[in-house]
Request: fold
Amino acid sequence: MKLIEAIDVSKTFKDGSREITALNETNFSVEAGEFVAVIGPSGSGKSTLLTILGGLQQPSEGKVLINGNKFSEVSDKDRTQLRFEEIGFILQASNLVPFLTVEDQMRLVNKVKSDAYDEEKANKLFEALNITELRDKYPKDLSGGERQRAAIARALFHDPSVILADEPTASLDTERAVEVVEILARETKDKEKATIMVTHDERLIGYCDKVYYMEDGELRLDEDKSNKEQPDEDELDGTTTE
Amino acid sequence: MFLAWNEIKYSKTRFALIIGVIVLVSYLVYFLTGLAYGLAQDNRTSVDKWEADAIVLTDESNANIGMSMMPLGERDQVDADEVAVLGQAPNVIRREGETSEEAKINVTFFGIDPDEFIMPEVIEGEAFTDNYEVIADISLQEEEGIELGDKLTLAGSDIEVEVVGFTEDAKFNVAPVLYTTIATYQDVRFEAIDESNEGRISALVLRNDSVSGIDVENDDLVVYTISEYIEELPGYMAQLLTFGLMIGFLIVIAAVVIGIFMYVLTVQKSSMFGVMKAQGISTGYISSSVVMQTFLLSLMGTLTGLALTVLTAYFLPATVPYQSNSYFLIGITVLLILFAVIGAFFSVRTIVKIDPLEAID
Ligand SMILES: Nc1ncnc2c1ncn2[C@@H]1O[C@H](COP(=O)(O)OP(=O)(O)OP(=O)(O)O)[C@@H](O)[C@H]1O
Ligand SMILES: [Mg+2]
Reply:
């Protein structure tokens, strides 16, 4: 099942009289349980793609479907609501609220929904991400890796169908970066999510099912890299896909 | 509420400062209101005490009772349910034997007929039965230490009066009232007693179902309702307006200061709000938490200010005309909080305009 799909999506920016095409007629989709990497040079349009998929900005042309909803054609208010329900954002810089403890970051999600706090779910996530001991700490008291894991917990807590990660490992050393990506890969498989990760770090793409290469607003599947990891992928999700 | 309260707990110093400002401003507002009210009361309690509907003064007095003078006989030209004669004269008294400057006390004499309705209720001692006996306002006892049986000498004459009783809430033009007979009043004012129809008094105080139904057969006399009359008390409205203006401005200033604080905090947090928006948390939720936070801060601030006011009032010397009641205290609290919250709406515009896209870069 396609959880997220971009159909003929283009994005142009006006820069004075010049027109910059950040994204050119992109067609792209990610299935449930699929972990996709997007790589490419700086300024090629990776973040633009991600923010359009996440509904933070509107495409100039084309449309985005999330879980069957025409994301790019609803009102701002509904889009915010959809984003809250369907999308988990993980950003390069921490997306944690500085004055909430790790546990309260989760609690906030329930508060926004006026639900009771689902402590059991939080406990499971904390355990999976190995941050159970950090639950009462504030973001400023966490290391970069711990913070990023807490951010992942936050992004996963409301059970989004799509995870959008823009260079989630940029502030981490290799060891931590690998750890974070492993977690993302595992959560994607276990919970049948569609995960898109923008990264500069080619060492991390080994964990991804597909690798797309972006250049000058053109997105194409990087067969080499995707295929190379094919056996690994089968091993990982042999029971969950199909 | 969740975000608002957690942030206050997290940044204690920052929010303590804001609360501190609210405490100081609200303390000032509460206190000024108490003073304004106390002073207003000191101008009028003796008038309120009549529980009358109207007062008759001479036309040329311009509603100033000190300038109004009419013969006792004109009482018969006024047709109302109840009529009471009143002679009013300011004076300065000293306790017998005292000669110092500081011992001088400003008072107002009310010459009345003890059988008429404006006769005050005696809370200590007894009513006057003879000339040169007075019922005094209790503040003379509380502030000046005058006791029952004390003799008071009048400035500039050898008249002496004796305190035989005390009553409460009897101040006129910020001075305690001494109730006495019409004859004593005439002696105090004119140094001559004339209880015939030609004898002079200041005013007639009336009770009547409707003020318009009062019939006066004399063009030289004017009927004022009690509220009209109070507004015309010399200095009364000016005082009230001055205080009112100060209090109003203070409330607005408090709202502006809190509004600016919240605005600066909101601008500081805009990237965090951007991230929240990117995560799908609605502008409404973020805005309401900012408004809620303002509410919490102003609630804590005003309640502390209120506690301080009550404490101060408790230790205040009796000579300070501070007086307040729960209506004022609650009213001001509500106004302060309401205005502060309105000030916070200033920040909501900023929150609406935050672009979640900026959180990504
Ligand atoms: N709001 C904007 N206004 C004008 N041009 C923009 C805007 N946002 C992006 N661009 C342009 O679009 C192109 C793609 O930008 P984008 O941020 O998607 O690149 P990127 O691939 O994420 O780069 P990086 O790897 O450095 O993050 C760039 O040329 C950028 O200058
Ligand atoms: Mg980018």
